[in-house]
Amino acid sequence: MKLSKKTGTTHTKFTKSKQYMLTLFIFFCVLMVIIISPKLMGKNYDYDTIRLNEDETLGADFSAQVTNITYNPSKKIMKLAFKYNDQNVINRLSNLKISYDFKFINNQESLDSRKNSKEIKVSDDYIVVFVKNVPEDFGVMSSTIQPRLTHAKAEEKQEFKEAEWKFYVSQDDVKIDNTLKIVTKSELINEGVQQEINDVKKEIKNVKSQIKEMKVEMSLTEKEIESKEKDLDYQTLEEKQETTSDINSLKGNTLSSKSKITELNEKIEKYQQKIKLLQTKMVK
Fold it and tell me: Which residue in 65, 90, 113, 264 has the fewest CB atoms around it within 10 Å?
């Protein structure tokens, strides 16, 4: 009996030891997966990624922002749109020259900017850069922007000498557009103009919606006036005075609404004129 008891005790200790080793092994495997997975998946990096439409100061009175980032995985093309602002008394944007450097976390080799990126200066303050050969699972793209002034005074050039903007683009935050392609300056200008036209059309739609709501409200008010006017035949002198006051107030509201609708219709006409002017900006 003593021998049997001893054997049972030895078996229990061995089981606990195996469980401990198994738990330790599982913990180690999970830890390795957490460490290795970003390298395999190309995402979930601990970087401060770029925020669209936020100014970044690059020099005295000079700032820039990224307004749009779009990616086409099938064509391996990325589009970055930059907006530049110079608050200097003499605008220097026409003398601005920018160099770009792009590299990916999955591939530390920098792209040759001259071969793999195309800069299109739509206007002095709006520049679009197309980056080619972007890996399908790039994870995070590091972007370095270096502005330089040409045809400027020595002190102005010195001001921009140390200017550099480095930011990161996360694949998780990029807008996917499978129709994206590299286009010409003319096409980008037309694209921008069309966006302006679309924005104006949205304003027209909002104004028309306001007019529709006001007309519905006016119709209800007119019915209420008609009802109160019928009630006058069955009211005392004191009641008539109160009802008449209500009717006059409602009629005043109706006149105010009609005036407001006239103003809104005039606003629509101005918007329509603006659309016609914008259409003349289209490059044929």
Answer: 90
Nearest to 173 by CA among 23, 54, 52, 73: 52
106 with 202, same domain? Answer: no
Q: Which domain holds residue 259?
A: 188-279
Tell me, yes or no, whether 40 lies in a domain: no
**SS3 assignment, position 147:** strand
For residue 7, pLDDT over 60 is answered with no
Q: How far apart are CA 214 and CA 262, in angstroms?
A: 11
Q: Both 174 and 199 in a single domain? A: no
Spatial contact of 134 and 77, defined as CB atoms under 8 Å apart? yes
Please give the pLDDT value at position 159: 67
Which of 164, 181, 198 lies at the terminal end of a domain, its last residue?
Answer: 181
Quick check: 39 and 146 in contact, CB under 8 A? Answer: no
- Domain boundary residue, one of 146, 181, 216: 181
82 within a domain of the structure (yes/no): yes
Whether residue 31 lies inside any domain: the answer is no
Mean pLDDT for the chain? Answer: 83
Mark whether 66 and 174 lie in a shared domain.
yes
State the residue for tokens 């997966």. Answer: 33
User: Rounded to whole angstroms, how far apart are CA atoms 17 and 35?
Assistant: 27
At 144-183, the pLDDT tens digits run 988 887 776 666 666 666 678 899 999 988 999 999 999 9
Torsion of CA 196, 202, 204, 205, to 10 degrees: 160
Q: Report CA-CA distances (Å) from 218 to 93, 132, 223, 256, 260.
A: 52, 58, 9, 10, 12
Centre a 10 Å sphere on the Cβ of residue 84 and count the other Cβ atoms it contains: 19
Nearest CA among 171, 173, 191, 193 for reference residue 181: 191
Q: What is the pTM of this model?
A: 0.63
